[in-house]
Amino acid sequence: MKSLAQKTVTLKDIAKEVGISPSTVSRAINNEGRVSETTKRRISEAIKKLDYHPNIMARGLASKKTKSVGFVISKRRGRSLDRTSFYGKIIEGVEKEGRKYGYNPIFSVINEEERKSASLQIVKENRVDGLILAGCDIDKKLVLSLKERKIPLVLVDNHFDKEKISCVVTDNLNGAYEAVTYLISLGHKRIGFVAEMLSDLSFYERLQGYKLALKEAGLNYEENLVQESRDDIGYTATKKLLESQLPPSAIFAANDSAAIQAMRAIRKKRLRIPQDIAIVGFDNGEVAPYTNPPLTTVRVFTKEMGQIAMRMLIGIINNKNPLPVKNLMFTELVIRESCGGKLKRENFRPLTH
Fold first, then answer.
1. What pLDDT is stored for residue 62 in this prediction?
2. 247 located within any domain
3. How far apart are alpha carbons 145 and 119 in whole angstroms?
4. What is the full DSSP assignment across 9-61?
5. Of all helices (H) and strands (E), which one includes residue 236?
6. 255 shares a domain with 217
7. Is residue 154 part of a domain?
8. Considering the domain boundaries, does residue 58 fall inside one?
9. Per-residue pLDDT at 81
10. Which of 293, 260, 261, 257 lies closest to 86 in space, CA to CA?
11. Which of these, 35, 155, 193, 277, could form a disulfide with 28 (CB 3.0-4.6 Å)?
């Protein structure tokens, strides 16, 4: 009687199918050494034909690597990690890219005490080969401590330029500059800026883009047009702008959450969007097309950020990326109905950094 158990396909089976040595198959799969493109293609065909799946645990034991990476985020940033959120999309990209290379992400939401400590539990327990640290509120002391211990690191949505640590960040300056320049092109001269907290690095950079757009258009920067409200994201900040003696005719919100709260405050004042006041957000989250009216916003390629961060980290782990790299992700202005205008792409030019 034949066994119902499925035979495990090994590197030797792939080698036999192609007619080459197992070591050549191993080099091709791990992208090590020289293997011709023709041979790689034949190996790929054999892998599909025989339904080969690498034994990740065995490979980890042989290389003394766990084949796991840590994705670390602070408790504040981790309040919402569903698939539609900013960091949820980044995680989706990390997971997708990890599967390609046989790496398993371990997610760790750290509290205030651990965020400011000099180490992490998953590092102490040797559970990961490297770390992706997400968000600008991961303490610099912790990051530098991990770097000194030569633990492979990639920052996402954060950067320490002087310390030379590999990172993937959004081009916040240019994205904000383009959004505000667009509002100016529609005739707006008094443009408000609302954010949850201006101390946040990403929001600070977006504020700089806002200032630069005003300066290049010959408009004065007015501090009273910039408001933050930590407790309700953007509602109170917008309310303050609307109650001022000279309220703005448009608002640029530091993210879509703030823009949605701004819309709520505007409707509470019985004002119309965009007839009485135009609004632009930042992130292009999944809710943006379904607000009333649909939100004009700056698209951020969050899933791609996660994929690139994972690919960079794997390269560092395998000593293929010895030099720190800052990967600046471009943005895209998505025009919908909350501004009442149409995009003329020729009006914009990308900033040089």
1. 47
2. yes
3. 7
4. P-HHHHHHHHTS-HHHHHHHHTT-S---HHHHHHHHHHHHHHT----HHHHHH
5. helix 235-243
6. yes
7. yes
8. no
9. 66
10. 257
11. 35
